[in-house]
Specification:
- The protein is mainly α.
- The chain has one domain (3-99).
- The chain contains four helices and no strands.
- It has helices spanning 3-18, 26-29, 34-60, 66-99.
- Helix 1 (3-18) packs parallel to helix 4 (66-99) and helix 3 (34-60) packs antiparallel against helix 4.
- The longest helix has 34 residues, at 66-99.
- The chain is elongated, with a radius of gyration of 18 Å.
- The termini are far apart.
Length: 102
């Protein structure tokens, strides 16, 4: 999955969560749960990091072009930044919930 597709999917999923007019259970909608989405995003970052390392090693061995390495680094960075932004939103939402009076 490309970083752009991953980012678009993550933003679409989070926007779907924030634009609800009434509370719904995930099972009713038939979508994936947040934990599975987050696990998949972290897995994608890990896979892209491994691919980036492979490209860097191939470049060091003279078997890859510098453009391939730079592209792999940029893709990994974009995916990682998306996951970090999602994490920041989750933490912010948690903090807001904790501020609510009981």
């Amino acid at each position: 999955m490309t970083p752009a597709a991953l980012a678009a999917g993550a933003y679409r999923a989070t926007q779907g969560l924030t634009n609800r007019t009434e509370p719904r259970q995930v099972a009713e909608v038939g979508g994936t749960d947040f934990g599975a989405m987050l696990k998949a995003a972290v897995g994608d970052v890990s896979r892209q990091g491994a691919a980036m390392d492979g490209k860097a090693l191939a470049y060091a061995g003279g078997k890859a072009d510098v453009i391939d390495v730079v592209t792999a680094v940029a893709e990994t960075q974009a995916t990682f930044e998306t996951v970090v932004a999602l994490r920041d939103k989750v933490i912010s939402a948690y903090e807001e919930i904790m501020k609510m009076p009981i």
